């Protein structure tokens, strides 16, 4: 079993032609998600090893041995390995189009994390004082902002949480964020700069924060 790639090793192994996860038959949503989750981080490696109560060990073995280990070892995963996973998801998820059609990444993550591996939700969100919502990833929804031409992830997350009146109930162990969606005809942003660190201080519910005027603990929040 191979650890995630870091620093110079990541550049050496992942850069160049025939690197990454090979696309085939509308697999781009899954290829991008798997690459993001496993190539350079171990935060979700429990998905590969831990025997969860509802865990399907066959899917877990395919994910670990045919996708993640080859990606970390050689920097390349063949399309047939992803298709093998898609075939299993089609069988387990009772959805015949998983091997042919493009899906929403959130649908893929919910299926593999919840129904197949039985992982507890990663995020707890609250909107406007309503009941908590459990989920596995957060998709950024926001209106077009004229002042955001080339935004970074920090700006997009803050704008999205503010416009939706959302708060994180607790610090998540893993924060999977889906960038704004767009089609072939329209792109909300031509580029998005990755934020190498994410400050969630202002996104946490009931988190003590400093008053921007006096420096004491704040008692009011102005959006």
Automatic annotation (TrEMBL):
GO terms (BP aspect): protein deubiquitination
Classification via Pfam families: UCH
Gene Ontology cellular-component annotations: microtubule; spindle
UniProt-listed InterPro entries: Papain-like_cys_pep_sf (IPR038765), Peptidase_C19_UCH (IPR001394), USP_CS (IPR018200)
Keyword Hydrolase: yes
Chain ranges of the Peptidase C19 ubiquitin carboxyl-terminal hydrolase domain: 20-200
Single GO MF annotation: cysteine-type deubiquitinase activity
Keywords: Cytoplasm, Hydrolase, Microtubule
Keyword set includes Cytoplasm: yes
Subcellular compartments: Cytoplasm, Cytoskeleton, Spindle
Name of the protein described by the UniProt record: Ubiquitin carboxyl-terminal hydrolase CYLD
């Amino acid at each position: 079993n191979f650890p995630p790639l870091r620093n110079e090793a990541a550049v050496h192994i992942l850069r160049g032609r025939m690197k990454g996860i090979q696309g085939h038959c509308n697999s781009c949503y899954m290829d991008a998600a798997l690459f993001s989750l496993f190539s350079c981080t171990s935060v979700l490696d429990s998905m590969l090893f831990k025997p969860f109560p509802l865990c399907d060990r066959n899917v877990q073995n395919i994910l670990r041995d045919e996708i993640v280990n080859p990606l970390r070892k050689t920097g390349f995963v063949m399309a047939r390995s992803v298709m093998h996973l898609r075939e299993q998801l089609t069988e387990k998820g009772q959805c015949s189009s998983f091997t042919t059609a493009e899906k929403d990444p959130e649908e893929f993550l919910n299926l593999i994390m919840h129904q197949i591996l039985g992982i507890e939700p990663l995020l707890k969100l609250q909107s406007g004082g309503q009941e908590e919502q459990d989920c596995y990833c957060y998709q950024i929804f926001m209106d077009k902002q004229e002042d955001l031409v080339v935004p970074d992830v920090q700006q997009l997350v803050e704008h999205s949480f503010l416009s939706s009146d959302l708060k994180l109930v607790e610090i998540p162990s893993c924060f999977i964020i889906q960038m704004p969606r767009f089609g072939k005809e329209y792109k909300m942003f031509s580029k998005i700069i990755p934020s190498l660190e994410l400050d969630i201080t202002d996104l946490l519910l009931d988190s003590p924060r400093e008053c921007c005027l006096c420096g004491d603990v704040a008692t009011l929040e102005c959006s």
